[in-house]
């Protein structure tokens, strides 16, 4: 942690050279008695310039968050939001178009969803560990395929499936994730409540730690989702959390069969 703090001080010194007026004084951390920042903090403006220069690197944001609670609060409030905007600008613009200045479940959770495949730890198809992915495409058009006809006015962004091949008896497994816009007022949420959908008995959302509704148990996975994923019928398992983060998995069709499914 001391090395991280020193690195941050070195980077911030670059900003001071650019514009000393950005750091008229230092601020002491009042959140933790064990905080390593005993000499105080530079201003948020200076730290903002550092991470803007680093293109909102998620690994460095995560490292900085471990320095102290003061840094962690800045990361949650500012840096993860800027990371999301830089990584998926059109998607973020749409998610905020309803007038909200934040997203359901907070920016840190959404930032993790953009770059982290949650694996199959809570899905019975196969056990695949979670891992980070370099780049993923999220599509609003694909999201329509995961909505029942009476819920098609909802907005859902879904990723292309992350393929995990040769998973033993389960064959080729595809793992997907997604995010609802304004989930609290969505038709999907209302239907889950009306159908008295069950929560997962032990697991929570890997992105925001909220409870998870079982979409399969609620019979809310349309066949169009199988066609979109090129998956076997009845092989999809899907969950959505109270904040609108969606995750699921399926058994993928062999390549020749999936081509026929796409034609269909």
**Average pLDDT over all residues:** 80
The radius of gyration over CA amounts to: 21 Å
Question: Per DSSP, what share of the residues sits in E-state strands of 2 or more residues?
Answer: 15-25%
Structural class: alpha+beta
Number of E-type strands = 10
Helix percent reads 25-40%
First and last CA, distance: 56 Å
The sequence of SSEs as H and E is HHHHHHEEEHEEEHEEHEEH
Shape call? globular
**Unreliable segments (pLDDT under 50, ≥5 consecutive)?**
11-28
- What is the helix tally? 10
**Main beta-sheet strand count, sense and barrel state:** 8 strands, antiparallel
Question: What's this model, at a glance?
Answer:
The relative contact order is 0.11.
Write the layout of secondary structure elements.
Layout (H helix, E strand, L loop, with lengths): L1 H17 L25 H10 L4 H8 L3 H19 L1 H7 L11 H9 E2 L13 E2 L5 E2 H5 L11 E4 L2 E3 L8 E8 L6 H8 L4 E6 L6 E4 L8 H7 L7 E5 L3 E7 L3 H9 L1
Antiparallel strand pairs: 1-2, 3-4, 4-6, 5-6, 6-10, 7-8, 8-9, 9-10
Helix pairs in contact: 1-2, 3-4, 4-5, 4-6
Explain how this protein is built.
It is a single chain. Helix 4 (69-87) crosses helix 6. A hairpin with a 3-residue loop joins strand 9 and strand 10 (245-251). With 264 residues, the chain is an alpha+beta fold. It contains ten helices and ten strands. The radius of gyration is 21 Å and the shape is globular. The protein has helices at 2-18, 44-53, 58-65, 69-87, 89-95, 107-115, 140-144, 187-194, 223-229, 255-263, and strands at 116-117, 131-132, 138-139, 156-159, 162-164, 173-180, 199-204, 211-214, 237-241, 245-251. Mean pLDDT is 80; it is low at 11-28. Strands 3, 4, 5, 6, 7, 8, 9 and 10 form an eight-stranded antiparallel sheet that branches. A two-stranded antiparallel ribbon has the order 1-2.
